[in-house]
Amino acid sequence: MTEGTQESAEMRAAVIELLGVLAYGEITAFERLAEDAKMAPTVDDKAALAAMAVAEFQHYTMLRDRISALGADPAAAMDPFIVPLDEFHVHTAPADWLEGLVKAYVGDGIAADFYREVAAHLDAVSRDLIVEVQRDTGHSAFVVDAVRAAIEHDPKVAGRLALWGRRLMGEALSQAQRVAAERDALSTMLVGSGTSPGFDLAEIGQMFNRITEAHQKRMALLGLAS
Amino acid sequence: MTEGTQESAEMRAAVIELLGVLAYGEITAFERLAEDAKMAPTVDDKAALAAMAVAEFQHYTMLRDRISALGADPAAAMDPFIVPLDEFHVHTAPADWLEGLVKAYVGDGIAADFYREVAAHLDAVSRDLIVEVQRDTGHSAFVVDAVRAAIEHDPKVAGRLALWGRRLMGEALSQAQRVAAERDALSTMLVGSGTSPGFDLAEIGQMFNRITEAHQKRMALLGLAS
Asked: What is the ipTM of this complex?
């Protein structure tokens, strides 16, 4: 095997891992949003969260089909990420409707930022797909309005929800770290290897800074300290 | 008010009630299918049930928009049906993945038959919409295959699932009866009044016969006694 094909085989493995974690992330997001929709105070609110869930499922099918198009098995590609993503959701089960809304908005935002950063390292088709599925579907304006209205109605909830937002960020980082430590192909793509391009360590630091700043902006938009 | 406008006001009220029960039925179906998807043995199975949930949500949005287009408030139109439909789901919570599949298939089928029968009495736009949202989306072939495979693998499950199918039919009829007893406009549309067309009692009997026969055919297709 020449060095070129070795390198492209590694890249392909990394792309499939990335699509796998994204796909499983989307279908669990579907499930959790549908679950959280049960706590909605009105049918309109329920429908708004359900619409977000539906968008996640449509993203799932696009990612799954891309994995198949690359000649890989979607179930196998998703398998390594079932435990860390399920654990993220178990550790961040919202206690009420407002926590569910904040999780939908903040969780979606962190995931979108991370994948957009990583997508820069992919082939054009996979990159465009990831940018497409992570594009804000406009549903989140509903969350911002609802959370701000709740804080206006009862300023005390802001403290609780701010803590909740910090916990979401902490759990997301801890599961991301776990995934990176266990998945060689993915982390090699991130940090690069002798022959393939990747982030260097300074760039990884900058990437996490950008993601943290974007998170703080989202919290501020909700009216919450971060 | 002339007799003609009186009659058309009654008809409009009945149409809005019908669209209201359908809309709330669709959004609860979305919720329950998404909930039941959690019991899926594989990610593929989960995605198949999630796809059925997504189709139900899309139907919900079409029905809600039609209620608005008729100048009525969707939330108010759905309100009377929250209790009976929620009770139907509480009384028929599946104990496992197979019961969830049978409920998805049989419940969907009974609802579709009923609404197709009633749709004949509606204005053309509402009728076409109801036929459209109740059209089999093709997802149910997945249920038939999965249930038949499970019975082949372990013939004992057929007895339990056959009982489950009868219970679903019983609960559906008992909640339908409750709705008909409480909603004057809907039941007037069904049985007709002095001036407006409707089913006569013999026709209602025939309608229930047709729905029961269709249910028996679906159970047979699943490999279950009814």
From this structure: 0.74
pLDDT in tens, A96-137: 999 999 999 888 888 888 778 877 777 888 888 888 887 766
Q: Which residue of B has its CA nearest to A44?
A: B75
Residue B200: per-residue pLDDT: 65
Question: What does the alpha-carbon distance between residue B163 and residue B183 come to, in Å, rounded to a whole number?
Answer: 30
Chain B CB within 8 Å of residue A208 CB: no
How far lies B88's CA from each of A131, A136, A207, B182, B219, in Å?
41, 36, 50, 16, 20
> Chain B residues with CB inside 8 Å of A35's CB?
34-35, 38
DSSP characters over B11-38: HHHHHHHHHHHHHHHHHHHHHHHHHHHT
Whether the CB of B54 is below 8 Å from some CB of chain A: the reply is yes
CB contact under 8 A, B54 and A51: no
CA distance B181 to A108: 45
Contact B78 A43 (CB under 8 A): yes
Cα dihedral across residues A18, A134, B42, A64: positive or negative:
negative
